[in-house]
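Supplementary Methods. Inverse-folding protocol.

Structures were first reduced to a discrete structure-token string of length 588. This string, shown here, constituted the complete conditioning input.
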């Protein structure tokens, strides 16, 4: 196991012990052990374990040393398995409700016997939770909202999680002997930030084995439909998947149809009709009209042949429309006019600016993050740890930030990595719009990301004015996550996006497209218009560990859905261009 995976287990042990009401010192030992582990570099950890020296590191007592060693070498921990089995699963599930930590859950369990979300809902409705010490009316209200949100959100899944499943399924389908073509369609292919269900389109010479494989693959909990040429399954995670098998010559039409969106399909069908054609999942054929003989789709002579979607679009006088653009938001008109944007691609990215290290709430050190950026081929990596007011995220005091600036300077001078590191900050926007550090300190940084991390309940006018004031600060380089939303978990704070975009353009400040799969904020729906007016986008993974850097792929998706081109995204610029750009920003 990697150190972060081990740290996850230690953290989880802490939570489970807390649910059981164990000794607080013991609980803290696991929590601080997890933190301490993150600060050790991977190679160092391996060395400490093999030389049996982990115990010499501050915070690692005998019990912890033995557990870390077991996890590191075997990937399992018997103590953890037993502990998990000893706790009612309903209690763990309650952790998903915002505002409920292990301590509160233990209280609810001890005093009201609550051991499930359903039981909590019932107790809240009856007003029993508000009467408990440490809860009150307000908390009870919040819990009810949390339960309701969970139901509403529970039906959809993050694109990132869905993609992981879908990639395995597509690979599995393609490996079947009778399968000639297989693709994931639907909202996943369109790169939507959340996905209702997966849709797979397969061309196959024989259908039986394909349906057989699909309905029995690993993780399938229930087969919800099974026909000759289609099937639907539900996985343990709740995610569902539809499969449709079609003859090879229908593949492109089925793929296009089931990629959607519905609005795009409706407009495509209208366009076909205007040309005397009928477009459907089966094919493109002359439309039936009064007085014409009924034309069968099977009549090969009349069907439009297409082996690629580009040919399908061409048959309707259109250039190829990327799946991400197929939302019925003007893409057909643009294709007709030959004005489709040349969309940004993953390979265009050269770096990113909003990333954390163990100095604040990240889980990998500066060196590890830089090594990971280098492995991705990035020319530059911006480090933007939290500022001092974000104490819950271990925000940096002035002294610690100054030390980090020196550390980054030394790292760059050492030439240890090809990737150049920029010293930045994710500076809190204080409740009145001032920044969290003095100008003299901000002056010393290569760039400044400004973000809202508190007082989320301010009204729209107050929040908008607050953010605009921060944008107008001469040292501000870019605005972090516009609304602070967490997909499927919480809505963002209220902002007037239009006014903030105006202010950013007027002050030559970029806005981030936070590529974290549960943020994707600013939303793709704003980008097309904003970028046309001159706003620059920074695709930032907001990485809190090395693996998080790869989240830029989700950001690329969202950027493409926002019609963004390479030129409109600042993080596609080369190192020398970026240096020039940052210098110009600082001279403002
Ligand atoms: P989702 O699953 O809710 O995230 O969204 P989609 O877009 O994947 O929707 P889904 O799975 O219901 O259907 C896949 C595609 O199939 C959809 O984007 C368009 C097409 N489709 C499905 N039902 C209809 C329909 O009633 N009319 C039209 N025009 N297209 C449909
Ligand atoms: Ca779907
Ligand atoms: Ca579906
Ligand atoms: Zn942030």
């Amino acid at each position: 196991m990697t150190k972060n995976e081990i740290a996850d287990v230690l953290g989880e042990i802490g939570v489970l012990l807390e649910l059981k009401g164990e000794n607080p010192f013991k609980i803290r030992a696991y929590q601080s052990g997890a933190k301490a582990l993150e600060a050790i570099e991977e190679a160092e950890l391996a060395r400490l374990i093999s030389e049996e020296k982990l115990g010499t590191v501050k915070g690692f007592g005998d019990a912890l040393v033995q557990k870390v060693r077991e996890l590191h070498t075997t990937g399992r921990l018997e103590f953890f398995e037993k502990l998990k089995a000893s706790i009612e699963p309903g209690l763990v599930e309650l952790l998903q409700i915002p505002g409920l930590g292990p301590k509160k859950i233990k209280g609810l369990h001890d005093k009201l016997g609550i051991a499930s979300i359903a039981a909590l809902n019932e107790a809240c409705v009856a007003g029993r939770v508000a009467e408990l010490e440490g809860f009150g009316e307000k908390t009870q209200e919040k819990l009810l909202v949390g339960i309701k949100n969970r139901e509403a959100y529970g039906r959809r899944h993050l694109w990132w999680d869905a993609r992981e499943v879908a990639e395995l399924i597509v690979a599995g389908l393609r490996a079947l002997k009778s399968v000639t073509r297989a693709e994931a369609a639907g909202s996943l292919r369109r790169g939507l930030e959340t996905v209702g269900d997966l849709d797979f389109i397969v061309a196959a010479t024989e259908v039986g084995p394909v349906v057989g494989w699909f309905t029995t693959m690993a993780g399938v909990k229930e087969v919800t439909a099974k026909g000759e040429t289609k099937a639907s399954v539900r996985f343990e995670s709740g995610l569902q998947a539809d499969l449709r098998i079609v003859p090879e010559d229908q593949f492109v039409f089925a793929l296009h149809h089931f990629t959607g969106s519905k609005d795009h399909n409706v407009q495509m069908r209208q366009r076909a009709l205007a040309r005397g054609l009928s477009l459907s999942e089966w094919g493109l054929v002359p439309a039936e009209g009064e007085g014409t003989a009924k034309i069968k789709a099977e009549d090969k002579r009349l069907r439009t042949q297409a082996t690629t979607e580009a040919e399908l679009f061409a048959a309707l006088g259109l250039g190829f429309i990327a799946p991400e653009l197929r939302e019925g938001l003007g893409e057909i008109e643009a294709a007709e006019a030959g004005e489709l944007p040349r969309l940004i691609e993953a390979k265009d990215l050269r770096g990113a600016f909003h990333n954390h290290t163990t100095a604040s709430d990240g889980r990998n050190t500066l060196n590890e993050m830089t090594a990971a950026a280098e492995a991705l081929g990035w020319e530059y990596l911006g480090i933007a740890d939290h500022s001092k007011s974000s104490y819950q995220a271990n925000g940096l005091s002035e002294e610690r930030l100054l030390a980090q600036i020196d550390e980054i300077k030394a790292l760059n001078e050492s030439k240890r990595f090809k990737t150049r590191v920029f010293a930045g900050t994710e500076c809190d926007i204080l409740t009145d719009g001032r920044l969290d550090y003095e100008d003299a300190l901000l002056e010393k940084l290569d760039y400044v990301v400004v973000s809202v991390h508190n007082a989320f309940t301010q009204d729209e006018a107050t929040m908008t004015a607050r953010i605009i004031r921060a944008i107008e600060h001469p040292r501000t380089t870019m605005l972090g996550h516009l609304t602070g939303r967490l997909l499927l978990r919480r809505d963002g704070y209220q902002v007037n996006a239009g006014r903030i975009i105006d202010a950013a353009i007027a002050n030559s400040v970029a806005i981030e497209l936070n590529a974290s799969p549960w943020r994707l904020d600013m939303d793709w729906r704003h980008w097309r218009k904003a970028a046309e007016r001159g706003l620059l986008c920074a695709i930032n993974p907001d990485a809190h560990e090395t693996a998080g850097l790869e989240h830029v792929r989700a950001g690329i998706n969202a950027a493409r859905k926002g019609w963004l081109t390479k030129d409109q995204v600042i993080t596609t610029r080369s190192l020398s261009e970026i240096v020039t750009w940052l210098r110009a920003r600082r001279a403002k």
